[in-house]
Records
---
Amino acid sequence: MLNKDMSCEHYRYLKKIKRRKQIITITQVSIFVLALILWEIAARMKLIDTFLTSSPSDIWNTFIRMSKEGDLTYHVGISVVENIVGFTVGTILGVIIAIGLWWSDFWAKVLEPYLVVLNTLPKTALAPIIIIWIGTGYSGIIVTAIVTSIVITIMNMFNSFISVDENKIKLLKTFGASKLQIFTKLVFPQSIPAMISTLKVNIGLSWIGVIVGEFLVSRAGIGYLLVYGGQVFRFDLIMMSLFILTIISVLMYKLVSIIENRFSKWQQ
Amino acid sequence: MDSAPVLQIKNLSMTYHRLNGEVKAIEKIDLDVYEGEIIGIVGPSGCGKSTLLSIIAGLMKPSSGEVILNGKRVEKPSKDIGYMFQRDLLFEWRTIFENVLLGLEIQGKITDESRKTAEKMLETYGLGDFKDSYPSQLSGGMRQRAALIRTLMTEPKLLLLDEPFSALDYQTRLAISDEVGVILKKEKKTTLMVTHDIAEAISMSDRVVVLSNRPAVIKDIIDIELTVPKGIWSPINCREAPEFRHYFNQIWKELDIHVK
């Protein structure tokens, strides 16, 4: 804070800002709660067809029942593991390939058009091939998740590596730095923020890979619950799966944000 | 100057090759620099001043000619040469203390002793309280001072300053060039400083080299002898010397700058 003994005016100013923030949060929560309540009322008064929309209470009951039976932890657990392995491996492999491209200017130039083409291709279109090649087990799903995130990781990281200030490289060279030192002391640390933001994107992309993979293989996981729910017309199951998927994605995103804050103390 | 020169530049030429042709940047430059001297290099913008420094630093290979530092030919960046840039180029994710130690870290020469030296230098040059701060928390002048300490920490025999103050605002620039000038004299550093500021060159240097338009050749080398008032040498005081104006006019005429 600027000073401790602030004027009344400044106090009022701070209070006003705080108040506004509170109102925004309250409104945000209210919209959600109100929507749930309206949904429930409409369902109970038979204004909407619960066969096609389900209702919050049904969804909640399904959630409780499946949690007790242990089905839910099984399916959610599988999907989460597939997702975590997918985006972790996708990010690490992508970063390693980007390092290779940074190291060899020749190969970076040669492979550039391939990367651009691969990047425009919707990666989930490859899922059927991957599952045939790798197998219909978890590994096929995980590879699908990796493939959805790896190309964008390579491109983002490579662009971040080459955007390092030429003069800073020159500075390190005047100290007699080797190429490896230029990478470890300058290029890599400079790119950590870009890496974390890529990681955030990859969580979402990896979820797409996992769900599509599970749609195709359909044995277990949240994607399986969605497909199964659709086939037997159990909207409570579909809606519950969607809610869980949303909550988990948000939690993961938040977790990466926390890591991000720890790495960015020098930016303040 | 009785001893042998620290730096000899012999018949140095540089031609750039581009797709749309070649450009002669510098041509047949000869210069001897002696221990403890501060040499200012002035020239019209784009005349190849920075190219000259890059070659001396061993970052670029000349088309012909050679650079000899302490009797040895410069082929690649040498630990005996310290380079200071237009911008401070501090690494934002390192504290000032870690930034200052960067050169030694690269050369694998960090010891408890060098840590102490770094702390002492930060203290001496007014950055003691900012040792653990990040660059973004410092003013432009302080950052440039930290950059100078980073350069001095590797104990170079020769310092190359590439327009080191031109990114600063005018007041800070005057203050920092004064401080740096005093520091360089105190540490007895042999220095080559490229600048486009004539007054800065005169106030800080023992000799001023005037370069021509592209391709750069040496037009004149002027010995600066100023009767410094109050008897204390410092760049700011130098500006008050009666001969200052005379040198300024002489260099200005030799630069022969016409704005078209």
---
Amino acid sequence: MFEAFGRKILHAAQTTGEMLALLVETVYYFKEAPRNLPSIFRQLSEIGIGTLPIASLMAIFIGMVLALQTGVELASFGTQEALGSIVALSMVKELGPVMTSLLVAGRVGSSIAAEIGAMEVYEEIDALKTLDINPVRYLAMPRLLAALVAVPALVVFTMIIGILGGGLISDVNPKINVPFNVYYDHVVRALNYKEIFKGLLKATVFGGIVAQVGCYVGFKTSNGARGIGQSTTRAVVLSFLLIFVANYFLTRFML
Amino acid sequence: MADFFKTEKNKPSGNIWSKLTHGFTASIFEGCECQSNYEDSHGVDIKLIDVNKSFNGNHVLKNINLEIKAGETFSIIGPSGTGKSVLLKHIVKLEKPDSGQILIDGQDIYDTEDKDAPRDYRYSMVFQSSALFNSLSVEENVGLWLREKRVCTETRIRRIIREKLRLVGLSGKEALMTSELSGGMRKRVAIARSLAMNPDLILYDEPTAELDPVTSDELARVIMNLKKEVNLTTIIVSHDLNFALYLSDRIAMISGGEIIEIGTPEEIKASQNPTVRKFIYTTTKGIKGD
């Protein structure tokens, strides 16, 4: 039992070390970004524009549910006017960055792992090496850079849409009955640049985690089609886990 | 000091400038019509000395000693799973030997502290699966190295792509996506992609695998034409004996991770080694004669 536990610890340490090494190498190649602009824009479009419709849908429903659950409770104490502040702070500090990043992990992280995994299995990565094209520079760098830009941008949208969704429910739901101008007033009062910055910092870190995990798992893929499937699942699970862990520590340090 | 410059000048492949201009560090040449010696392909000498490799205790390559001359077409034949492809991957640095040396033009390819150091030769490999990039078109696949390394101007790159596709008999197929290609066409695009580097060394890993006899024959003709038109060292790994006999200047037979016979096609056919005889007999289905 101890042996198995030890092996798992060693495996986790090895994975962490390899991921950090990949991160360092990927960041090193940021200097090559200007000559990889087409690839970076392709990834930006895939991560940002591609995820925007589903992220918007998710955000509006999160905002609406949040307003509904909280608003009804607050109304029972007669403090429903504070709903705007609660929805805004929840969306900006937690729900916007975390939920959007989880969505990106499921949609884009898995696709990065599958794409790079397939390239690994079908010798395309080896082909890149023989063409003297560094796979980290060619594949990982554009994805990481795009994720670092696209995920915070997406989070800005989800924050706005979520807050608007909450405002809609607070205005139309008779049990809450907070006019939109009152809701909006509380939103503006609750939010400041510092809170928004904290939310976007979280989004940037989570975006980096999603891209990095997708690339790492992709590069480690083996065992043919089955291995690609396993990598896809592994990328999503690992991204989720790391997002939750990072979220705790970021929240703790930014309190 | 003056002697130093004189010596370096007289040794074109030895100094750092010639390595930069002939090797892969190309971006500094952006703007010129073509990298100064892109057109120059010289073929390389390859020497393997006591190369050993094991995977999980399985000794795949056992004391491999091999010498391939510049400009030679050399085939490595043998049954599946005997270490042929692993041997090839060692030459292009996709695998590192457990022991032994691999020399290209007298230089140990692993005897450098800087793995990104410029080398004074270009190599490319045609993979068994073709390994084309599925998200790219034929034109983009063939031109990938040229564009990534900024070897030439875009106009010149397009000209080179057209020329290489013509060499492999795929003129006019530039716009096709790789998913629209047959197995034989994929292989030829992979060859064109390799040729676009104007390599000094080209390696083929099972080029006829999964191809029908007619397509294999077409491919053999393409490689034969290249042999006539382009001066490069060619290494072919195959279990297709007839293909190797048709194309090669020399052939090595590998069995159980060891080289058991080396010689010209005639010498191989006349070999009395029982393993070679058995391989020839089974691959020709027992048909006697040439």
